[in-house]
Amino acid sequence: MKQELSYTIEEVAQLLKVSKLTIYDLVKKGELPVFRVGRQMRMDAKDLEKYIADSKSPAYTAPGPKRAEAKDASPLVISGQDMVLDLLGQYIEKNSGHKALRSHKGSLNGLISMYNGEAEIVSLHMFDGDTGEYNLPYIKKILVGHPYILLNLLSRKAGLYVKKGNPFKLATWSDLNNDKLTFINRERGSGARILLDEQLRINNIPAKNLKGYENEETNHLSVASAVSSGAADVGVGIEKAAKLVGVDFVPLITERYDLVLLKTSTNEELITTVKTILTSIPFQAEIDALGDYDISRTGSVIHETF
């Protein structure tokens, strides 16, 4: 039976980076459901995820100079899960006539959505074990016949979430081949799942050797929380979630987190807008302030077809 995760009010406040008073106010208003264990209030992880997802769609429009509305500008969908994409959506809304909507699909599923005409901006962090390259090998296979541009959003560390003190002394991908470990996985199509599966393949580790491989969570925070709660010994994810949840992190790879946009006659203005935002000092400064992100290539063109 799968163990359900829950958080204290203090933990929720830390995850959302707000005060406990703010969380208590949301609970009082009925926006965040809680249950009690003795005198302590706790919140189900799934309820917190639902609150975050509901708050992201449509994306918040930050205050700023009022602009003329473009009546013919349709909403656009930004696919991916990193919090920087919410920031990008705010900048797009301030600098164009588009309303930015958020989809929280994993990298591969987001790319397929773009192929099917269901997303305008897709974020990617898909590792290819044969080339050691990120993203481009997958894009070339899926966006066949579609001209596109691939822009770097940022780089970040990916690796293993482990319990405090790293009791199993995990240091490499090969160390996952241990029948004493309980693993927690990401969903199929996510960048973290692809990274794991490729590392298992190139290190000749059968997936069946990972106890818990079939147990899935849908985001980095939930995987890190599963390790923190003791439901699992190890999971794959990014550094920032480890710090937010409070588990140790073993960095194993620097992943390139990119954005892909199709090059169409209707997308020319959007591509220009996104390029301008990514290379702007204010946008990069806000990313840098979040910590644990490398912005040295932010806004650079990784690949472009004509």
TrEMBL record:
Residue intervals of the PBP domain = 93-278
GO terms for MF: DNA binding
Pfam families membership: HTH_17, PBP_like
Q: Which residues form the Helix-turn-helix domain?
A: 7-53
Tell me which InterPro entries the record gives: DNA-bd_dom_put_sf, HTH_17, PBP_domain, SinI_DNA-bd
Q: Which domain of life is it from?
A: Bacteria
User: PANTHER family from the xrefs?
Assistant: BLL2305 PROTEIN (PTHR38431:SF1)
Query: What name is this protein filed under?
Result: Excisionase
The record lists the organism as Peribacillus muralis
The lineage, from the top, is:
Bacteria, Bacillati, Bacillota, Bacilli, Bacillales
